[in-house]
Amino acid sequence: PGGITAQQIEEVIGKITVDPALLDSGQKPKSPGMKYRHYAPDAALVLVKGEREDIQRLILEKQQEGLKVGVLTTEENENFYQADKVIACGSRKNLDSVAGSLYDTLRNFNSADLDLILSEMFPDEGVGQAIMNRLVKAAGYRIISI
């Protein structure tokens, strides 16, 4: 997945399929870039399915356990979260901006000496699919629902 979406490609050439190694952590990838954690920050990254209020409760819970917690969010929620480091990677209204800044955003967390980074999730379609592909790999397939 990338800036040209699967839907755009299908409009031109017809139905396409996704290599199973991209979707299943147990499958062997055909090349290193298909699967491994190139985007991964130093701290553990976890993708969180849930409302922002639930994510904030999780942040507080982890901080009470003594962890330094960062949050990867969007401009729409940047001021909502109270964590040790909050970084917005763009706007949900412009996922191209999120995709364009994702690598740098994940690298910016490294200067904060965090134990854990919690990331909001994005729609798994269009450019959102490319964003989620990179986030899932960077998180080492760690996804929780709250």
UniProtKB/TrEMBL annotation:
Record's protein name: Threonylcarbamoyl-AMP synthase
InterPro entries: Sua5/YwlC_C, Sua5_C
Residues in Threonylcarbamoyl-AMP synthase C-terminal domain copies: 4-140
